[in-house]
Predict the structure.
Amino acid sequence: MKTGAAEKELARQLEAVYDAGESAAVATLVFEALTGLDRSRLRLQRETGLTDEQVLRLEAITRRLLQEEPVQYVLNEAWFAGMRLYVDPAVLIPRPETEELVEWIVSDLRARGLDVFDKAPNGADRTEVLKVLDVGTGSGCIALALKQRMPRAEVWGCDVSDEALNVARRNGSTLDIRVDFQGVDFLSDAQQTLLPSVDVLVSNPPYIPLKDRSSMHGNVVQWEPHTALFVPDNDPLLFYAAIARFCNRRLHTGGVVYLEIHEELGAAVTELFRHAGYANVELRKDLQGKDRMVRVSRI
Ligand SMILES: C[S@@+](CC[C@H](N)C(=O)[O-])C[C@H]1O[C@@H](n2cnc3c(N)ncnc32)[C@H](O)[C@@H]1O
């Protein structure tokens, strides 16, 4: 079968689980992975035939996609902040909203003129000037993107899931980005003491109340790790409260906290931090116009 026709046929089949636009986008991702060609080369080689091996692989991929398994898990890759990350069902698939959180941090720190962006020249003093902690690191996407953009910062990522930490460490080593990933149950005050004092804390914690589960798309609920997604209906701010407790002890004066939030929890999260004595509280919308990020500082 020719590549172009096979891609069209896959898109058609995927309309059983996705809308037409998504089906075409997923089919293109599959064919990029299958052929090793980017989308413009793929278009130029529409008439090239698939090898027997490619046909077999395509059949296996199609079967998994039709069971609503996210394409990122099927292909074991997701793009985040220009990095190709390994992902599997142990970790949340990194989302574009989270890239916006990373951009907010980087642009703030640039504006502060901090000496963290350039690699120290050979032989120069490699003293790291800024300590950053990513809570609930999952694939390591936030921590790795920050360390890549700010080579002279010292970056930690923590997670309760050993499987997620394996993925994060694998990404760090494949990309050759040095982040210290640690296994910590952040909800335990005792385990929080294993973590360093920092200047910047960032987190995209679990924040979806369990009651929302029934209205979510099958490919999220059936496949993505529930420890990454859900919080109890009666305590949706659980992780933000734990972050505030940690920051009271371990965030340096002048330190800043950046959080991803549920679109309906903007007022509650900002109030929690105001009440805990934090300043410069700012709620920001994502590109979809939904309340999605909060920044607060410790004075
Ligand atoms: C919403 S995911 C975010 C993953 C990644 N930072 C991202 O933005 O794609 C939340 C992460 O928090 C982790 N997590 C859940 N409970 C935790 C706990 N008690 N302590 C530390 N991490 C936890 C999950 O394993 C998951 O990796």
